[in-house]
Design goal:
With about 100 residues, the protein is mostly helical. The chain contains three helices and no strands. The longest helix has about 40 residues, at about 1-40. It has two domains: about 1-40; about 40-100. The radius of gyration is 36 Å and the shape is rod-shaped. About 80% of the residues lie in helices and about 0% in strands.
Length: about 100
């Protein structure tokens, strides 16, 4: 009986050692995969910078369009096609209101 008991204990230890090695291999694999993800992952600060750049670019484009609109309105007023009162209302609209 004593030999059978020792044999069961040795089998249990062997099984436990195999499981520990399997878990260790899985952790190593997971660690490697996480390292690859971290090198390609986009960070919040990167996104914030990119969004700020995009916002700046959009504002520049909107201002250019606003300048074109202002020139068109002033040209229509100069030609007598658009009354000054209507032109002033248009120029006072958002996003870049002209103070008249």
């Amino acid at each position: 009986m004593e030999d059978e008991s020792k044999h069961e204990i040795l089998e249990a230890i062997s099984l436990l050692a195999d499981n520990v090695q399997s878990v260790s291999d899985r952790v190593d694999d997971l660690s490697t995969r996480m390292g690859r993800v971290e090198t390609t992952m986009v960070t919040k600060s990167y996104l914030d910078d990119k969004l700020a750049d995009l916002r700046g670019d959009l504002i520049v484009l909107a201002r250019k369009q606003n300048t074109k609109l202002n020139i068109l309105i002033e040209s229509l007023v100069a030609e007598g096609i658009l009354p000054r009162k209507v032109a002033d209302k248009i120029l006072a609209l958002e996003p870049f209101p002209e103070l008249v």
